[in-house]
Design brief:
Blueprint lengths: L2 E5 L6 H11 L4 E2 L13 H11 L5 E4 L2 H11 L9 H14 E6 L3 H9 L7 H19 L3 E3 L10
Helix pairs in contact: 3-6, 5-6
Length: 159
């Protein structure tokens, strides 16, 4: 069994994929979420607490991981990460790189935009969805080994 991380911008189908995988593979559990589309990402002490407690749980499927999604949202929202938090993020990012399977949900942009515009989101996500998609694409292409999943054309990945 391994750790599975489902990543991607709002509206990309992450939660739908997590639910389908949990239905098909009942031996896996859903990892606690570090953020939601409504409440936004964790930061500071809350983030470090979450990483210490839930950072890499074997046999869990993550609906986003703050070591991946955090830098995306920090860049798009021009947020500064507190210096003392950076080593925690880098450490868990290294663990992800070494031992997790990352699945990047990336359907066509129009499908993402339609999903974001049709659902409640964190304030402003619909206005910045194109920047979020572009930033995710850049980070995933250059920093994170992953497989890509497009719910509009791909079958459910095998675990």
């Amino acid at each position: 069994m391994s750790t599975i991380i489902i990543e991607g911008p709002d509206g990309a189908g992450k939660t739908r994929l997590v639910e389908a995988l949990l239905d098909r593979y009942p031996e896996y559990r859903a990892a606690p979420r570090a953020c939601t589309s409504i409440d936004g990402p964790l930061s500071g002490r809350d983030l470090v607490y979450w990483i210490n407690r839930f950072g890499m749980l074997d046999g869990n499927i993550y609906d986003r991981h703050p070591a991946i999604s955090g830098p995306v949202y920090d860049a798009v929202l021009s947020r500064r990460v507190e210096l003392w938090v950076q080593p925690w993020i880098q450490g868990i990012f290294h663990e992800i790189h070494e031992s997790a399977r990352v699945i990047y949900c990336r359907p066509p942009r129009r499908a993402i935009v339609e999903a974001v515009n049709g659902a409640p989101q964190m304030d402003g996500v619909n206005r910045m969805i194109h920047r979020l998609v572009d930033t995710y694409d850049a980070i995933m292409a250059n920093m994170i080994q992953h497989e890509r999943y497009d719910w509009t054309r791909d079958d459910l990945p095998s675990l």
